[in-house]
Design a protein that fits this description.
Strand content: 15-25%
Distance between the termini: 39 Å
Bound molecules: adenosine-5'-diphosphate, magnesium ion
CATH superfamily of the largest domain: Histidine kinase-like ATPase, C-terminal domain
Strand order of the largest sheet: 2-4-5-7-6
CATH class of the largest domain: Alpha Beta
Shape: elongated
CATH architecture of the largest domain: 2-Layer Sandwich
Length: 285
């Protein structure tokens, strides 16, 4: 009988583990979906005006060609000037440069988003690599900026950091979750501060918000899978659970400080180097 029990327990544990990894997977998918929507929105705007500028530029080119063709045909300079006037040459001249500048900016914006996306697309790569934490944070900021900018002013206070050994895209995912939570905690308009620093063995980054804060009662359950105080559809309660497991995989830890009504601060500590056999730190949350 004890053997049977032990077998059953083992089986249950296995099922639980599987369910857990499925949940984390679904949180990742949700985050990717959210990301995709943000990216689509962010790209849509520049593509829209670049496209419309291109149409206007096509009209201008047609008019300019008309003027050049006329120069072969007209009998007098006055006649050519009349054509130029009729086609509003003076205005075209001014507007062309503005349209080109604006279009270039738009394409630059799209390019930077695509670069950021490329960083994120390595999310499933599981190899530790030496990476610049600031670059990862900037990449993540760039991607969520669309959601953040309406909620908060984002302030960066970066310290001096060496490169750290980490799973870069997964750390981006942690930053994404913390930034999203920070934005969601703010009613109306607030401030989100992104700081970094390090000591001899660890680097840290933190996300501080001026949101509604966390009560002592909720504080205990933050990292529990499914713990959410958000309405259905907005919160899955898996963001911090996923972040926790990623940080644990690095042998790091997450510190939380919060004052209800004032705001919250989530600080992620990551070892600068991975020891060959990573032992997750004990239950310090
Ligand atoms: N910056 C924050 N300010 C206030 N509450 C927070 C913050 N971050 C997380 N929380 C609380 O922790 C809960 C769990 O967060 P998370 O695991 O990301 O799930 P979700 O965001 O889907 O609810 C949130 O519902 C919220 O109550
Ligand atoms: Mg969340």
């Amino acid at each position: 009988m004890p053997t049977n029990d032990a077998q059953r327990t083992e089986e249950l544990l296995r099922e639980l583990e599987q369910a857990n990894s499925q949940l984390l997977q679904s949180e990742k998918l949700a985050a990717i979906g959210q990301l995709a929507a943000g990216v689509a929105h962010e790209i849509n705007n520049p593509i829209g005006y670049v496209f419309s500028n291109l149409k206007t530029l096509a009209d201008y080119v047609r008019d300019l060609l008309q003027i050049i063709d006329a120069s072969d045909r007209v009998a007098s300079l006055e006649e050519l000037q009349a054509v130029k006037q009729r086609l509003d040459y003076g205005y075209i001249r001014e507007d062309v440069q503005a349209l080109i500048n604006e279009s270039e900016e738009g394409i630059e914006r799209v390019k930077s988003i695509i670069t950021a996306l490329k960083d994120f697309s390595h999310i499933e790569e599981d190899d530790f690599a030496t990476a610049d934490l600031h670059r990862g944070l900037d990449t993540t900021l760039n991607l969520v900026n669309n959601e953040l900018k309406y909620k908060a002013e984002v302030v960066k206070q970066y310290g001096e950091l060496p490169e750290i050994e980490c799973l870069p895209s997964q750390i981006n995912q942690v930053a994404l979750n913390l930034l999203t939570n920070a934005a969601q905690s703010i009613e109306g308009h607030g401030r989100i501060t992104l700081r970094t620093g390090c000591d001899a063995t660890h680097a840290w980054f933190e996300v501080e918000d001026t949101g509604h804060g966390i009560t002592a009662e909720h504080r205990e359950r933050l990292f529990d899978p499914f713990f959410t105080t958000k309405p259905v559809g907005e919160g899955t309660g898996l963001g911090l659970a996923l972040s926790w497991s990623i940080v644990q995989k690095h042998g790091g830890r997450i510190e939380v400080a919060s004052e209800p009504g004032q705001g919250s601060r989530f600080r992620v500590w990551l070892p600068l180097h991975q020891s060959p056999n990573v032992q997750p730190e004990s239950e310090s949350r």
